[in-house]
Amino acid sequence: MKNTLNHLVLSVSKVNRQHIQMVFVLVSLAMLVLGVGAPDDSIGTSR
Amino acid sequence: MILLVAVLAGFLVGMVWAWMRRQPYEVPDLKHLWLVFLAYLPQFAILYIPGIRQQVSDLWSAILLTVSQVLLLGFAWLNRKLPGMTILLVGAALNFTVMAANGGFMPISPQTASRFLSQQELMDIPTGERIGVKDILLQPEDTRFEFLADRFLPPAWSTYQVAFSLGDVFLAVGVFWLLARQPTGTVYTAKRITT
Asked: Per the CB < 8 Å rule, is B130 touching A47?
């Protein structure tokens, strides 16, 4: 149990600021293109 | 879906590019990220969450969609100096133009929609009704800026079918380049170890 906890803490500490920033940027760009884009592959499944 | 593939492809190519140059991957230095969340989340709610989508009228959906797109265009404009963002901005402006000129939704002709729907289903949908997520069924002659509408399709033999616009093409290229391009600078070389 203690080893698992230590492993978890170690894994979390490896997630640094750059990784979090990268995720934010990727999510933001995905939202941007989905927000201004209008390709539609859902016709026939949602009306 | 195709735009998310462009995001993923740009990111992967950028990672490989950085790895080949032996330097860490550098994400684009985007400013005002909060604006994207502010602009997109209401749009996501009214378009993709069924409970909310059914409660919001088409008129209000069009208004909120237009406001959301204006804010996202503002975000792209504020970051226009980043490589690829100008192409993305052009795509966003093209889509905004055709959607704003056609009641806030992306027009699609019955001919294009016939790739997704049977003739019987098409006959049941009156012209001017919303179909799909952001689209509206309109005859080409009733469509303003028809050349900017969802009028392009992949080959018929493709298992993945999607209708997309010229603006979508610019968006895909722009976001790909934004994520793929790595700053040119010093190429880091591995230290030679001598014994």
From this structure: yes
